[in-house]
Specification:
174 residues, alpha/beta, five-stranded parallel β-sheet, Rossmann fold
């Protein structure tokens, strides 16, 4: 059985390096991490993966990708790898900013939020998340794990328990 793929695309070498390193450190044993600076090359790689029968769990693109708008790239990726979740990675409020469900730029700047929300509404992307911050960014990792749906990962989200769930007793019996 082959391991699934996490792909990340960003034409900024510095932020691509950060995303790639962050994903490799946390998910490198469970996923094949593929990073590319070119959306066109990434689409070609997705085609190669499809021909090889490889499962692509997640395709992430930085919102700042200049060669082609990231949401358009992710929409094209869907036609090649329809089962893959498509994630738009948006900038944070700064390198030390906390990881938020709604990134600071989208809250503060409606002009920045409009294309992201439009891309979600038109089905071009499945979700968005903040770029990873400095150090261990558990919010980023939680979002990646939840979005990937735990495909191939040791870091699966904990399943929801029903209201009638009672923890098992631990220890010696009375």
């Amino acid at each position: 059985m082959t391991i699934p793929v996490l792909m990340v695309v960003d034409d900024d070498p510095e932020s691509l390096g950060i995303l790639d390193g962050t994903l490799r450190r946390r998910y490198g044993e469970d996923y094949l991490i593929i990073s590319d600076a070119s959306p066109a090359a990434a689409l070609d790689r997705l085609r190669e993966l499809r021909v090889a029968g490889r499962e692509v769990a997640l395709v992430m693109a930085a919102a700042a990708v200049m060669a082609a708008p990231a949401a358009e790239f992710l929409a094209q990726a869907r036609s090649i790898a329809p089962a893959a979740k498509r994630v738009l990675v948006v900038p944070r409020g700064g390198p030390a900013a906390p990881s938020l469900r709604v990134p600071v730029p989208l809250v503060a700047d409606r002009q920045a939020a409009a294309p992201v929300l439009r891309a979600i509404a038109h089905g071009m992307i499945d979700t968005y998340l903040s770029a990873p911050g400095a150090g261990r960014d558990e919010g980023f990792h939680r979002a990646v794990s939840e979005t990937a749906g735990g495909v191939g990962s040791r870091y699966r989200p904990c399943p929801a328990r029903g209201a009638d769930h009672r923890p098992a007793a631990v220890g010696p019996r009375p």
